[in-house]
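Input:
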Amino acid sequence: MSDTKNHVKRNFLRPETIAAHTLKAIDEATGSITPPIYTSSTYARDQSYTPRLKENYIRNGNPTLWHAEQAVAALEQGEETLLFASGMAAITTLLETVPVGAHVAAPDVMYYGTRDWLKRLEAKGRIELTILNPTYPARIAAAIRKGKTDLVWIETPLNPTWDVIDIEHTAKLAHDAGAILAVDATASAAVTTQPLLLGADIVFHSATKYLNGHSDVLAGALVTGNVNARWQEMASLRTKIGAPLAPFECWLLIRGLRTLFVRYRQASANAIILARHFEKHPKIDRVLYPGLASHKGHDIARRQMTDGFGGMLSLLIKGSAADAVRVCTRLRVIIPATSLGGVESLAEHRKTVEGSESPVPDNLIRLSVGIEHVDDLMADIEQALG
Ligand SMILES: Cc1ncc(COP(=O)(O)O)c(C=O)c1O
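Output:
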């Protein structure tokens, strides 16, 4: 029997198929092949006063939310997903479950919103925090305190240096000390990396980015491979705080997920061409992209990013912060805007966004490479460099 027949027989579809059908949402009543949007904020009980659904109130859950959550869980090969009204709502909910006084280890270069929130918790005396350079595994090992560290937080690739952190190794270090590992995998969608299969306890996505992919939704996702008491605390907190993703956004996310694989692969294909080209450009000092042999995370990336290195890369231009800003203003195709993971390419001077305290180099331009024709993107950057 062929491999394909085996997959069908075991009812195990490949992730591309799961994404394209987003769990085969054919509506029984009408045959609609896209799911309805359940906008109702409340659900009526039946004649015997029994609730029809497992939840009756929109803040606790609703059918459109569950559909989107099951689709994301299937792609990550997780047991459950919780979708939130933003990535930051998901992150802060997870951090709320860290016991008071416990220790957290996190990277020095990372999404600045997460770093700011961790520092806020430390300043309030809620947690002990070690910020470390995770590109040196020995520093992760040295930071983790057996019996004291509750959470190891990593991001891979790291924003905006795109260093790749070894999930399997970090999970082992965390587990040996009794901690959990949470991975911000926003820049490496399930297309290319599945952190749960590598030992992570929780995967986080700013679903605003690749999962939705059309720059029109704010959303966050937590996925677990193990529904335990801590996970249930996160679910309960989401309800109490009132942070589930709203039905229309869930529906847009379901629609976006259908093209996740083709979008991510095209962005990866464009990005590697641009990275190789600009690496040799006389006006560029360095290109940071995990797909380049010159990148310090390349060896791990080759093992861990099994289907493309993604669309995120940074150009370190020869020049000052003002020169980098000028390049951004000269772009005509690539849009000078923050965010990432959409079908359209975006560029930003990261230091301007993160502020003067940020460790990001002054001359760094972050590119989120989209799915346009790569020649148009290349010509645009060439003319902007002048
Ligand atoms: C890597 C990463 N993590 C977390 C976030 C926060 O997500 P959101 O903007 O959806 O709240 C972002 C947003 O830019 C991000 O890029």
